Amino acid sequence: LAAAAAVTDRLKLGTGIALVVQRDPIHTAKEVATIDVLSDGRFLFGIGAGWNLEEMANHGTDPARRFGLMRERVEAMKAIWAAEEAEYHGDQVDFGPIVQNPKPVQKPHPPIHVGGVYPGGLRRAVRYGDGWMPIAGRGDSDPGGWVRARDEECARVGRAPAAVEISVYAAPQDPARLADLAEAGIDRVMFGLPPEGPETVLPILDRLAGLVGGLSGG
C-alpha cells in the first residue's frame, strides 16, 4: 500500500480486510496513519474479525470474544488518531497515556469499513464504522435488502444512512448484476484479482474498469 501510495495520485487505497483481532492496536494505528499521510488522505481502513478460529488462537485471541475485542481495538485506535495524548481502558484493551504521530490526514480518521455478513456485520458497521462490506454470495445477498437494512439500523441508532456506505466485496463480474447493485444504491463494488504478473492482471483491470465505467457513465 505504501508503494502504491507513492506512485498514484487519485487511486483509493484500502484493506479488505485487516484482521484487527490479530493485530496490536497501537502498532496498527501507526500503520494506518502513516499510509493515510503517504497517500494524502486516500486510505480506506477495511476491517474484520475473521473466521479461522485456530489462527485467532495462535495470535492469543479468544474466538468467542473476538467481536468485543474488535470494537475495543477500533475505539482505542480512534482515540490514538484523535488525541494528542491518548489512553484507553476496556475489558480487553487497556493502556495508559501515549503520544503517537503522525496523525491521519483524514479527520478524525480514515473511513472504517467493517466486513461481515448480515445482520451482525451490519450492526457492527453502524455502531462504530463508516461503511459496511457484505460479501456477495454469502448470507442474504439481496442488495435492495442490504440498503433497506442499513437505513433501518441507522434510524434505530440515530445515524444518517449516508454516513455508512455499502461496499460489496467479491462483486460479480456480470454487467446485469452490477447494474442491479447500482440501482439498489450500493456505493462501491470490489473485485478479486489473481496473484499474477502484469501481463495477466492489467487486461483484467482494463475489463473491470470498463464494467464499472459503463455504470457510472465514464
From TrEMBL:
Q: Which UniProt keywords apply?
A: Flavoprotein, FMN, Monooxygenase, Oxidoreductase
Q: Which GO terms describe its biological process?
A: alkanesulfonate catabolic process
Q: Which residues form the Luciferase-like domain?
A: 1-170
A Pfam family reported for this protein in Swiss-Prot or TrEMBL: Bac_luciferase
Listed InterPro entries = Lucif-like_OxRdtase_Rv2161c, Luciferase-like_dom, Luciferase-like_sf, SsuD_RutA_monooxygenase
Question: What is this protein identified as?
Answer: Luciferase-like domain-containing protein
GO MF terms here are: alkanesulfonate monooxygenase activity
Source species: marine metagenome
